[in-house]
Design brief:
There is one protein chain. The protein has 287 residues and is α/β, with parallel strands linked by helices. The protein has a single domain, classed as Rossmann fold (3-Layer(aba) Sandwich), CATH 3.40.50. It has 6 helices and 11 strands. The longest helix is centred in the first third of the chain and has 24 residues. The protein is globular, with a radius of gyration of 21 Å. 39% of the residues are buried.
Amino acid sequence: MMMKLNKYVMVLLLALYGSISMAQNQPKFRVIAFYTAKNDMAHISFVHEANKWFPQMAAKYNFSYDSTSNWNNLNAAFLAKYQVVIFLDTRPPSNEQRAAFETYMKNGGGWMGFHYSAFALTPSDDPQNWDWYHNEFLGAGQYVSNTWRPVSAILRVEDRHHPATKGLPATFKSQPCEWYRWQFDLRKNPDIDILCSIDSTSFPLGTGPKLSEIWHSGYYPIVWSNRKYNMVYFNMGHNDMDYEHKYDKNTVETLSHTFDGEMQDKLVMNTLLWLGGNRHKNLYPQK
């Protein structure tokens, strides 16, 4: 009787150990990144870099990372498998995809967007024809102008209490990027929490050749969140490509160094881990 009992206990212990082991091997959350990567070589190289870097971070921090260029996957059934959506370089083109994304976000999904994913300009190949996304969700409206050439900037942490900025210094040097200016002043939007902006010590920012591409003053948000959603937008995501001179299209992807900076990488990973833990919670840190 005692031997049978011991065997029974052993079976229970093995089953329990197996359950614990399986639970430990399960990813904490699942991430899906959408991209287009067809037009601008600087954005294409960023996508290549991101799709190498995020899987490395997934292995390190125990989350799963998938990526796709098929925007038709932006539907309710597909998105239900993921806790965080990333837009690497563009936004969904069709009304059906946009509606699915809006529903996903309003139901508590997480989102991280980079650089060109917020771009819209009427008239252009990417007009501002999605009011919810550009005016409400992002809050920035249309693109207005940018610096050139891509350069590093000193970024100032505006919200020291947000989980995304945990452990960051008051200021830090970014990786080279093309910096955007927007239609709306995000400081006037009560739903927007600006996490990082360009510090005044960065000016003049840009090298031209056009004088309008060099910023000498002003306030420029770089990373921000919308308190109504689990989201963070990053202006980063453009590499240090020299358009004015010849470059090798076969090696252009190596020109992207967005994820080569310790503090910038920390900001991105803090953000992703925060978003991954917020599914269906609609939580936002209180100042």
